[in-house]
Amino acid sequence: MHFEREARSVNLALRLLVPRAAGPHPGMRNCTHQCDREPGVSAEELKPQNFGRINLIMNNLFLKAVGGLFYIFIAISALIFLSAWAFQYWQAWTFLAVFMISISAVFIYLAKCDPSLLARRIKTSEQEQSQKIIRFLINLAFAATVIVSALDHRFAWSEMRLGVIFIGEAVVLLGVIVIFVVFKENTFTAQTVEVEAGQTVVSTGPYALVRHSMYVGGLVFMLGIPPALGSWWGMLMILLFTPAIAWRILSEEKLLVRDLPGYLEYCNKVRYRLVPLVW
Predict the structure, then answer these.
(1) Per residue in 65-122, pLDDT tens?
(2) What is the CATH number of domain 2-269?
(3) SS3 for 274?
(4) Using CA atoms, how far apart are residues 6 and 60, in angstroms rounded to an integer?
(5) What percent of the chain shows pLDDT beyond 70?
(6) Any idea of the CA torsion for 239, 245, 251, 253, to the nearest 10 degrees?
(7) How far apart are CA 184 and CA 261, in angstroms?
């Protein structure tokens, strides 16, 4: 209930800051039509005395997002440098720079153009126990990938050419770009598995190719981490990540078929979940 009230208040702020009559803000292709996809706002909520509350909510949302970014940076840095037991690890610094710059750019876009989606991405508490287990497994696989890659650097288990390392950095960036494209296409890409009021099936853009394009971006991002950190052995940890993602996809689709009108028809139209011609 708390999140629903917060999301509604963010929606109200969007309608006040981006009124329909004004048209879209330059460079914000989806802003106004994303507002229109949200539930309606009453005249009572549009009274000027609500402006202070809206500003407070938007500021809190911004601070939560910044805090989340800072936590991610500290957590990943700790996993890398504690495992490598050295700061003289240029591959790690390059990876962190590519990741943080790209993810911060996505954050700035969401904060400026789609705060409702930013609020959805901040919410991480799953309702179903199975989803909590899946999230734990995904986080464990991510941590294992980073730790093994850093240990590989520490103990020199494998050698990797410079060009392959930069290809890894490019793959990491590509994964973030795919995720960004998904965010632009679908404002309901929440962290948690649920169906919100007013949510509709999105079948355009990357969703015309596979049903779970968000996870495609995540998988591409994960594939880039080991080579970006200069490790071949870290690639083995992807074997932990893939089944966890597959389990989440299957669990998510059961809920979407049950609760999201039109999703079954969408599944019949777009046959592949994650990889075209494969699955």
Answers:
(1) 788 889 999 999 999 999 999 999 999 999 999 999 999 999 989 888 888 888 888 7
(2) 1.20.120.1630
(3) coil
(4) 10
(5) 78
(6) -130
(7) 22
